[in-house]
Amino acid sequence: MDFGYQIFHSQPGSRLMRYAISANRLRDGLVVFFAPGETWVEQLADARLFDAEAEAESALERARADEKKNLIVEAFVFAVKAGAQGPVANHIRDAIRATGPTVRRDLGKQAAG
Amino acid sequence: MYRYDEFDAGFVKERVDAFRDQVARRLKGELTEEQFRPHRLMNGLYLQLHAYMLRVAVPYGTLDSRQMRKLAHIARVYDKGYGHFTTRQNIQYNWPTLADTPAILDELASVEMHAIQTSGNCIRNVTADHFAGAAADEIDDPRPYAEILRQWSSIHPEFSFLPRKFKIAVNGAARDRAAIQAHDIGLQIVRDAQGEIGFAVYVGGGMGRTPMIATKIRDFLPVADLLAYTQAIVRVYNLEGRRDNKYKARIKILVHEKGAEWMRAAVEAEFAAAPRVGIELPAEEVARIKAYFAPPDLAPRAHSLAFEARRRSDPAFAAFVASNIAAHRMDGYGIVTISLKPIGGAPGDASADQMDAVADIAERYALGEIRVSHEQNLVLPHVALEDAPAVFDALAACGLATANAGLITDIIACPGLDYCALATARSIPVAQRISQRFGDTARARDIGQLKIKISGCINACGHHHVGHIGILGLERKGVETYQITLGGSGDETCSMGALTGPGFSSEEVVDAIERIVDAYRMLRTDESEDFLTAYRRVGMQPFKEALYETSKGADI
Ligand code: SF4
């Protein structure tokens, strides 16, 4: 059984680092990502990526409008890196949010599709 | 078994209806998240990493088959087919939706269950020995007292906004299986010289960031004074406990800062001054509650030949008997621990089908009674030894017959970073890897009693401080690292584990545990000296040497 987890670690500010916005959907609590067209999607692969952290932070303001509209809660910016199968969250916590429990590969995002 | 009286049923229904209304208003946008969050938490609903999490109270860990089936039903219909039994003798669901939660609470209420006071700065679910009412070494059943405390503390207006959460545990046997000295208040049932039942009262224990062993402030408290004295403790805490710093707000810090003598005097003064009307426990009321927990009508049974024959002929059954069946107070019966720690599994998880199977087995062979232990296992408290082979076979058929209760693979682990929003590292995968390393083997049995407890952050839900071997997952520069403590114990010889030294990476930690265990096997006087006893005899140093010994010279 493989309990390991591929973790990317590069220094923030690295040329390869990009940024995305995530939140939890109010109604079911599931993890969602801010996407092109200012919508929310369930897969990180479909998320909008920002080249600069400042750019992501200003988009976060717009994303937060959806907190007021009671669509999502707890929006935040996090760092991602390009991986072979699309963007991968840089920090393990965000990576687990984006995929699902590492101990239940049949659950969460990783189970879909 | 205790059934809600009419007051409770009406009250729980009111609470569910109120929450349904709050959820509807939240979804419509009439309540903001800030306004709604306290209501959500008061009903046991947290927002975790992947989804909401609902924590359902199992008061003092006692369930019946009907309730267990309901928990299975909820797992199947509203969740992803499983639940997680916790170190607080609760069950958590990891994937409920906000919109469904009122319906789940309705389902729970239909079997006299709820999620109230599983969160917030109030008196939480009162815990008790999971062998209560069955153990051979029991002085008195702790559950009636836990129930009296539960009723008294439920939505107690004076104690709904304490400086921090407040946990009470009651133990009724000589052996402390409820870890009372690691609780805000620990009550140990004792008898005085006249044979009267009462409590030794411990205050200010706790784990988390600042682990402390409780101080005994009373050798003997008469039963009639249980609530008055508890009230005095909570009042002193409510008044004097620190509210300026969340990390210093538990009663243990108050006891530590002001001293045990001050605490004892303050509690006794408050206890002496407060009027007793309405808080003294009349003997009739104690008797009324006790009647709900009346011991089952078991007749002693003769030695079971079928049991002995199976034990002699089937090593798997013999191993199960040795580790998972404890002495019952009645001849011919045993207490069966159902391990929720299959080799390589997630500690405390049970599928809906397994919950249903346990409900059926309990109904058929164990008077329909089930317990949840703080060690994240289930217990059938009353099983005739004659039936033990059938129980074993039925458990084996649903993957629940792992013969490892109390052994190295019976690991406690909190949800950690796989689920928990507060976590700094994962804990379940570490438990799984240790479990796989030692497996269901002769070596694991030779190691004997060894409690490994793992927490995914400093909050210590995995009780690592009182693990014989404790593991604390932390984050260093974005990477999981694991600190190891040795020599902790949650029983009547309570001690907090001592740190071995620098932490280990995720890759190293299982090897580190194995080195500690190998060192123990070298160091023990013989097989009868368990890990904790050996550690207490030889101290940290030899383990440190085994753990941090570098391969000096080996590569010459
Ligand atoms: S110890 Fe930390 S990581 Fe584990 S369940 Fe408690 S809060 Fe979460």
The tally of beta strands of chain B, per DSSP, is 21
Question: CATH H level of the largest domain in chain B: which superfamily?
Answer: Sulfite Reductase Hemoprotein, domain 1
Sketch the major β-sheet of chain B. Answer: 6 strands, mixed
Mean pLDDT of chain B: 92
Bound molecules: iron/sulfur cluster
Q: Percentage of helical residues of chain B?
A: 25-40%
Percentage of β-strand residues of chain A: 25-35%
Helix and strand pattern of chain A: EEEHEEH
Number of helices of chain A: 2
> How far is the N terminus from the C terminus of chain B?
69 Å
CATH architecture of the largest domain in chain B: 2-Layer Sandwich
Query: Quick one: biggest sheet of chain A?
Result: 5 strands, antiparallel
* Structural class computed from helices and strand pairing of chain B: alpha+beta
User: Which chains have the largest interface?
Assistant: A-B, 31 and 34 residues
* Portion in helices of chain A: 10-25%
CATH class of the largest domain in chain B: Alpha Beta
Which stretches of chain A are low in confidence, meaning pLDDT under 50 for 5 or more residues running? 1-11
General shape of chain A? globular
SSE blueprint and pairings:
The complex is a heterodimer of chains A (113) and B (556).
Chain A: E1 18-25, E2 31-35, E3 39-41, H1 53-68, E4 72-83, E5 86-89, H2 92-99
Antiparallel strand pairs in A: 1-2, 1-4, 2-3, 4-5
Chain B: H1 6-28, H2 33-42, E1 45-47, E2 52-56, E3 62-64, H3 65-78, E4 82-85, E5 91-93, H4 101-109, E6 127-128, H5 143-153, E7 168-171, E8 185-191, E9 197-203, E10 215-222, H6 226-240, H7 251-258, H8 260-273, H9 283-292, H10 305-313, H11 315-324, E11 325-327, E12 333-338, E13 349-351, H12 352-365, E14 369-372, E15 378-384, H13 388-397, E16 412-413, H14 428-438, H15 442-447, E17 452-455, E18 469-476, E19 479-486, E20 498-499, E21 504-505, H16 506-523, H17 531-538, H18 541-548
Task: Give a quick rundown of the structure.
The complex is a heterodimer of chains A (113) and B (556). With 113 residues, chain A is of the alpha+beta class.
